Amino acid sequence: MFDIKTKARELVSKMTLEEKVSQMMHGAKTVERLGIPSYNWWNEALHGVARAGTATVFPQAIALASAFDEELARKVADAVSTEGRAKYQMQQLEDDRDIYKGITFWTPNINIFRDPRWGRGQETYGEDPYLTSRLGVAFIKGLQGDDKDSLKSAACAKHFAVHSGPEDDRHHFNAVVDKYDLWNTYLTAFEAAVKEGGVEVVMGAYNRVFGEPCCGSKFLLKDILRDKWGFDGHVVSDCWAIKDFHENHMITSSPLESVVLAIRSGCDINCGVMFSLAAEAVEKGLLTANDIDAAVTRLIVTRMRLGILGGAPENKQYTDIPYEKVDCPEHRALNLEAAQRGIILLKNADILPLDAKKLKTIGVIGPNADNRRALDGNYQGTPSRRVTVLEGIRQIAESSGLRVLFSEGCDMLKDHKESLAQNDDRLSEARAVAKHSDALVLVLGLDGSVEGEENDQYSESEAGDKPNIELPGRQEELLKNVINAAGDKPVIVIIISGSAIVSEWADNHASAVIQAFYPGALGGQAVAEAIFGAFSPSGKLPVTFYRGTKELPDFSDYSMENRSYRYFKGEPLYPFGFGLSYAAFELCGVTADRNSATAQVKNTSSIDARETLQVYVSTPGTKEIHSLCGMKPIFLRAGEESEFVIPLNKNAFSRYDDDGNMREIHGEHRLSVGFTQPDARSVKLYGIKPLELTLTT
């Protein structure tokens, strides 16, 4: 039997110190005499294989989260891993070992989206620890496959830990967090990734926690990750994070000291080049040979598990994946399904779906109507084809004799479009389109040039955090102009963004509001199909849409007080877990025990549709108002009734103590089972109150 860890130790024992150290940077060098080829560990696959040419570009992570569906997340990740393998095999044959060409994918991002201003929140699965845990584990399993010692690709849980902005201070700040929030919010998904997902890689964050830089934190990397959780993969630093130890955090006084701190604390590979100093550290007695051997062995184990080094048995189901699987019809179909499942209907004044046969002209307006960049999100690949909302509507219009009028209306950010024009130089055209159309689709929001990762030399096109959560530039003025010019004609507002963008004016005056997040390469087709009723929207918000920026705590405050639906004391515009349907559903009864809830559901409409059953638990004496503890996507045909079993979080009736140990809370727990949260705003918007029952533990 091939014992991977034994074989890895044997290979490492044959290396010189310099050869070992050469493996500890993201660009690992060739050791020709031992048959070790060069390998670049840095690759991305957040929602498709990224930064390496053509690939299927699936909806951004936040849009995938809107489906509340573990199996869909697993299927998407499996498709991504298939394309990753196909591209890797091709690149190996072409002797292309460049960055973004490996099968170690630094994804998923399972940080908690605690503040809607965070530019990278789009990369996450939202604000809830349970939802993030479930989708994170599913995505990891989809990327890696079912056999720990024969990985399809290697997934990476990032950024460990307590990391969610502000982007422009991530290299400096110490995330101040109490132990309750640490264990019950920030670390929950990481524990699940390790213990349930078997994740192969964990990436440390840039910031400090309890004064220790995360990539050099004994508390995080040794005490928790390895000793408490039993993690046996490898740890990678975030890119150039090690130099922050001495340049920004001022924890160490030199590059050499920073390298020693990181390696001693359990960081195995440096995204960057500073670990080249590790040999000097050993020679000076600052690190031991065992410190280096342990790190390099873990890296060799990962490559052997992938079957790309050291004579590990070949897994032909992975190595035989042909290049033709890249952006194949099967994956494009899954991409469209994922885009459809992520669309969230936030308002519908009995306008949608539109009947194309009853219209002669439809107006499509807005800076995101024909913006291909708005489909992608960040950390994206290159799709072979993109379908914007305008293009999607035109596809449907052409088949039904419907004329499409278009106006960009305004720039996404600036006051005018043309350099010599006065402000609002497209507003008159937008009003004209509104007056000459039978129905209007107004597409607003953001794209990756407005929100994303810190705007620095390593993320050239990204823009960092948002200053607020309102519509930027002149988009609110465009919204008002179009609705006023339209009169009593329907105006459907589509928001494309990676985070919460709110307009109470739209909620009060638009005929319908749809949140599409960044819906992927075929997102415009999915949005158009939703508008014209090819399917019923079924997405749910994975984040709270507050009413405005003034309701938010200070961005740099990492306390969860008054953050997310679990702790927010105000009334949101649109709550977490909310999303409407064209169909109507009825709860006919629920039962529950500590392991599951059972619900009888009937589709009382004439439309086949999906919905999502949600279970929330409220426990007296705890900090949370209530917490998601179960979810199940369902599909019922018109008039159909069925019974569904919803598995509950095994820790639904427990909380972590300050040492990270789970403690059961004895007493009465109130369970709410329905299609939304049990809060008053959700009930008002959706029209159905969840059914409640009490469970005593």
Instruction: Indicate the low-confidence ranges by residue numbers.
Output: none
* Total helical segments: 22
- SS-derived structural category: alpha/beta
Share of residues in strands: 15-25%
- Fourth CATH level, the homologous superfamily of the largest domain: Glycoside hydrolase, family 3, N-terminal domain
Describe the global form.
globular
Q: What proportion of the residues is helical, as a percent range? A: 25-40%
Q: What average pLDDT do the residues reach? A: 96
Q: Key terms for this structure?
A:
single chain; 697 residues; alpha/beta; TIM Barrel; Rossmann fold; Immunoglobulin-like; 3 domains; six-stranded mixed β-sheet; four-stranded antiparallel β-sheet; globular
Short characterization:
It is built from 22 helices and 23 strands. The chain is an alpha/beta fold and 697 residues long. Strands 9-14-13-12-10-11 form a six-stranded mixed β-sheet, sandwiched between helices. A four-stranded antiparallel β-sheet has the order 18-17-22-23, with no helix packed on it.
Please render the helix and strand layout as text.
Elements: H1 4-13, H2 17-21, E1 27-28, E2 39-40, H3 61-65, H4 70-93, H5 129-144, E3 156-160, E4 174-175, H6 179-186, H7 188-195, E5 201-204, E6 208-209, E7 212-213, H8 218-228, E8 234-236, H9 244-247, H10 255-265, H11 278-283, H12 289-305, H13 316-319, H14 329-342, E9 344-348, E10 361-365, H15 373-376, H16 389-398, E11 403-407, H17 427-435, E12 439-445, H18 475-486, E13 491-496, H19 504-509, E14 512-515, H20 523-531, H21 564-567, E15 585-592, E16 596-603, E17 609-618, E18 627-636, E19 641-647, E20 654-656, E21 662-664, E22 668-674, H22 680-686, E23 691-696
Parallel strand pairs: 3-5, 4-6, 5-8, 10-11, 10-12, 12-13, 13-14
Antiparallel strand pairs: 1-2, 6-7, 9-14, 15-16, 16-19, 17-18, 17-22, 20-21, 22-23
Helix pairs in contact: 1-12, 4-5, 4-14, 5-7, 14-20, 16-20, 17-18
